[in-house]
From TrEMBL:
Membrane-topology annotation of the record: Multi-pass membrane protein
Protein name: ABC transmembrane type-1 domain-containing protein
Protein location: Cell membrane
Family: Belongs to the binding-protein-dependent transport system permease family. HisMQ subfamily.
Positions of transmembrane segments: 33-55, 67-89, 101-120, 202-226
Major subcellular location class: membrane
Organism: Microlunatus ginsengisoli
PROSITE patterns linked: ABC_TM1
Lineage, uppermost ranks: Bacteria, Bacillati, Actinomycetota, Actinomycetes, Propionibacteriales
One matching Pfam family: BPD_transp_1
Segments forming domain ABC transmembrane type-1: 29-223
Protein keywords: Amino-acid transport, Cell membrane, Membrane, Transmembrane, Transmembrane helix, Transport
Keyword match Calcium: no
Length: 261
């Protein structure tokens, strides 16, 4: 049974776990949530702009939106983070100081906005075109019809995909450590990694994994609840063709597919 004792000492050392727990909660968890929430909020704003440009009839708006989406969805997340975090480091120092923390948030926001933009686009286009035509018949202009009728209906259908995207951002936040964060700015993975090096075993990283699961597993069940409720409700009414495209957009996100590239 020596192998079992070795596994327990390597992954489940109680002393190492308890030692890193306060820092994991006070520093790692806090920064992971700050990075994730900030990147999501910025991504939502940028994503809506990209979506509106993407469904525009003007090629001057539609083509740049398509290029933006293809660029940030096509590049590996770690490559985008390093290009922005290191490429704009000198400019960032004059604005934010020596910390690369803001650049990490900006990089994640750009990645998230490309996926969120596709979620918004698919959700808006899943609304029956007759809704927009009815609004125009009532004298509403395009912008007012979108804002008051089409977008509110689409948002309900986007919720599962948007929550999935937030889960992806939470896991993607672990890549920001490549930029070399200050000790007070370390997220869950970096806190666990540093503690694992000092303790000589992987128990702190297991604690970091548990923290990620505490965040993501309830959200995953929330996604399933929204998805099942929406599908059940729509089954009683009429099928929505845009649901399949929304699912494909959410599933295409790098971290919902499990690849932190």
């Amino acid at each position: 049974m020596d192998w079992l004792n070795d596994i327990l000492r390597t992954f489940f050392d109680p002393h190492a776990m308890l030692q890193v727990l306060p820092q994991m909660l006070m520093v790692g968890l806090k920064n992971t949530l700050i990075i994730s929430v900030a990147a999501t909020l910025i991504g939502l704003v940028l994503g809506m702009i990209v979506a509106i440009m993407g469904i525009s009839t003007s090629p001057w708006l539609r083509i740049p939106a398509r290029i933006y989406t293809d660029l940030f969805r096509g590049l590996p997340a770690i490559l985008t983070i390093l290009l922005i975090g290191q490429g704009f480091a000198r400019l960032s120092q004059s604005v934010f100081g020596p910390s690369p923390y803001p650049l990490g948030i900006i990089a994640l926001s750009l990645i998230a906005s490309a996926y969120i933009g596709e979620i918004f686009r698919a959700g808006i286009q899943s609304v029956d075109k007759g809704q927009l035509e009815a609004c125009r018949a009532l004298g509403m202009n395009y912008a007012k019809a979108m804002r008051l009728v089409v977008v509110p209906q689409g948002v309900r259908r986007m919720l599962p995909a948007l929550v999935n995207q937030f889960i992806a951002i939470v896991k993607d936040s672990s890549l920001v450590y490549f930029l070399g964060l200050l000790s007070s700015e370390r997220e869950l993975f970096r806190v666990g990694q540093d503690a694992a090096i000092l303790s000589g075993n992987l128990s702190p990283l297991v604690v970091a994994g548990v923290m990620y699961l505490i965040i993501t597993v309830p959200l995953t069940h929330l996604v399933n609840y929204f998805d099942n409720r929406f599908r059940t409700g729509r089954r009683k009414a009429a099928p929505v063709s845009g649901l399949k495209e929304l699912d494909e957009v959410a599933a295409d996100s790098p971290l919902t597919t499990g690849s932190n590239t």
